[in-house]
Task: inverse folding
């Protein structure tokens, strides 16, 4: 499982280093170095290939007759790009994905269990401040799940 948050920079070519802890997990559990990156919720989400295939299988079972399902599939899956990890532990983020997430220099990689989120530092700071300000209501909802 991916956990923790790490500050990194993205270079002018769009390359960003994966945290060494994340690279270790990818090597031990997933072994193939392939990642799928797509847009979601004002950031990028990065899935190990194996987790992405499982997600595609779940999504393919949804009814495409529902407009919400079609909208989600169009948004989420159409923007997906396969990225490989280079010898230096970096991935190249294509320009359309960088533009969507407003990735310029300072970025945050956050472990999110089976996936990784990649945020611009400014957007991440806003999301964290909002979560802290609303922690009471968030904790009430989470308690319903037994956490």
Result:
């Amino acid at each position: 499982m991916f956990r923790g948050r790490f500050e990194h920079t993205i270079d002018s070519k769009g390359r960003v280093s994966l945290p060494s802890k994340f690279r270790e997990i990818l090597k031990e559990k997933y072994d193939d170095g392939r990642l799928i990156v797509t847009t979601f919720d004002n950031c990028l989400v990065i899935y190990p290939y194996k987790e992405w295939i499982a997600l595609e299988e779940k999504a393919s079972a949804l009814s495409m007759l529902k407009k919400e399902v079609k909208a989600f599939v169009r948004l989420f899956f159409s923007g997906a790009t396969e990225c490989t990890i280079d010898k230096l532990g970096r991935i190249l983020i294509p320009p359309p994905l960088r533009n969507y997430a407003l990735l310029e220099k300072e970025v945050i990689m956050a472990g999110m269990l089976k996936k990784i989120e990649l945020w611009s530092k400014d957007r991440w700071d806003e999301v964290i401040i909002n979560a802290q300000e609303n922690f009471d209501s968030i904790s009430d909802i989470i308690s319903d799940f037994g956490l």
Remarks:
- DSSP finds six helices and eight strands in the chain.
- The chain has a mean pLDDT of 93.
